[in-house]
Amino acid sequence: MMQDRPWLASYGPGVPADVSVPDKRITDLLIEAVARDGDVIAVDFFGATTSYTELAALAGRGAHALGKLGVQPGDAVSLVLPNSTSHVAAFHAVLACGATVVEHNPTYTVAELHDQLVTTGSVVVLCWRNRVLDLREAAIGTAVREVISVDVADDLPWTARLALRLPVAAARTKRRALTGADTGDAHDWRRLVAAAPPQPLSAVGQSSDTALIMFTGGTTGFPKAATLTHRNLVANATQGRAWAGFGTGSDVVYGMLPFFHAFGMMFCLVLPPLIGATLVAFPNFDPAAVIAAQRRRPASFVPGVAPMFDRLLDAAGDTALTSIRVAFSGAMPLSPAVAERWERATGGLLIEGYGMTECSPIALGNPCSERRRRGALGIPFPNTEIKVVDAEDRTVEVTPDADGVRHGELCVRGPQVFAGYLGQPEATAETVDAEGWLYTGDVVDVDRDGFAVLVDRVKELILVGGFNVFPSVVESHLRQMPGVADIAVVGIPRGDGTDEEVLAAIVVEENTPAPTLAEIREFGSQRLPGYAIPRRLEVLDDLPVNMIGKTLRRSVRATYLERHRA
Known about the structure:
Blueprint: H1 26-37, E1 41-45, E2 48-51, H2 52-68, E3 76-80, H3 85-96, E4 100-103, H4 110-120, E5 124-128, H5 132-138, E6 146-150, H6 158-164, H7 169-179, H8 189-195, E7 210-216, E8 224-229, H9 230-244, E9 252-255, H10 262-275, E10 278-281, H11 287-296, E11 301-304, H12 306-316, E12 326-329, H13 336-346, E13 349-355, E14 362-365, E15 379-380, E16 385-389, E17 406-413, E18 420-421, H14 425-431, E19 438-446, E20 452-457, E21 462-464, E22 467-469, H15 471-478, E23 484-494, E24 499-508, H16 517-524, E25 536-540, H17 553-563
Parallel strand pairs: 1-10, 3-4, 3-5, 4-7, 5-6, 9-10, 11-12, 12-13, 24-25
Antiparallel strand pairs: 1-2, 7-8, 8-18, 13-14, 14-15, 16-17, 17-19, 19-20, 21-22, 23-24
Helix pairs in contact: 1-10, 2-3, 2-8, 4-5, 9-10, 11-12, 12-13
């Protein structure tokens, strides 16, 4: 067995080669958390606390309210919400009535949200109050029957809610940001839940049912709806618990990552009830707010993306961070310098891992021990296999070279691998083969010990703050801008090189003035999320192409970096 899985020799203390994946739904995890840790604080939102018993009660009432609105097992219910107590409760309420959660980025445009609602067939949307009117517009021509308003200001402590009512400019500005415009005759989620009778939670359906739909481009192209089953998610949470050695009822998890992102979803919505942890939720990443929470309720586990850790250290000042036993970094490369700085300050571990939405999302991680290797993606999780195939011919499995290194596209197989793309059997078949191997689209070097190092991305994704930006999506929109004859979008390193920003290289139509970066950004904001809007602009006479006329994005990137080398 060790010959097949050489990475087992590097596992942390007590981590098994395989974990027993329970045949459970996510609702079962919450029911068990109530029985085991009912009085433990489940969610802390700026000091307003909700115990596991209270969270289950909210979820039960919410499930009843959704049922009264006609939501049936198997229906899709969309959440367009920032991180908040209401988001956590709504997530569990949807699952408790046997429906499927669809997570959306609440900053997406009306057009993007419309496309996603069409794809999923969602029948109800639970929406941040200040976007209700946008969602009603997005829902036109879809299966959506109800758009329900969720006022996250109601989740704040009473003192903060009172401060929002003060007749001063600052309070009015903050109130508008939180609550937004008039919602018309939309139902109010809090009132619906309050009016529902108490309902004991019960897990409806099977572990093989779809629990969650999250949008991802996979490894390329336009976003696709990845379907994740209860078993996928419970398996990945169980693997993560074993990997980090979590106990029950004692950990405090900081929810800085957005819950609509696969990384944040796993560590903030699924893992906490499994281990009875307290989730400290933040509506957005605000280092000052995180440090204030550290003084109030110290963290023991902090998942994040690389830039967050540097910014937290800068903001900490004299505030001790030594309560943080372990932090996980994913979604983008982690600088060894940041890891060293964090571990010196906390005395804990900063562990880099690897995954994708299609893996629920984690497949590899560095050991939570002295065996971790900075700069490596890590080794496979328990119950997880990997192989390396030729990046040009996936039918050929790569053999080790003279140094024992396998170079090629990384493939993953395990219980966390997703069920497929909703309504796209061909795209699913291109990503997961008949034997269950997920083709990640990432080129890696895997050494003789099983440690993987990222070499390149087959499909040229751009990583901005941990989010995927798909060049073809940005190009498709900006190509419609008057005066733009052709365009290539690439990622350019930012800061220490672990993060990227978007460069638009354009060719202008003849006898047309070149647009400015400000004009490009304004046009982009009509349809693109903020992180995908170009931050750099290069005007070229033409774009480099190959023999069949395909734009060579890598050449565009290399040329730009050469021209602008300091």
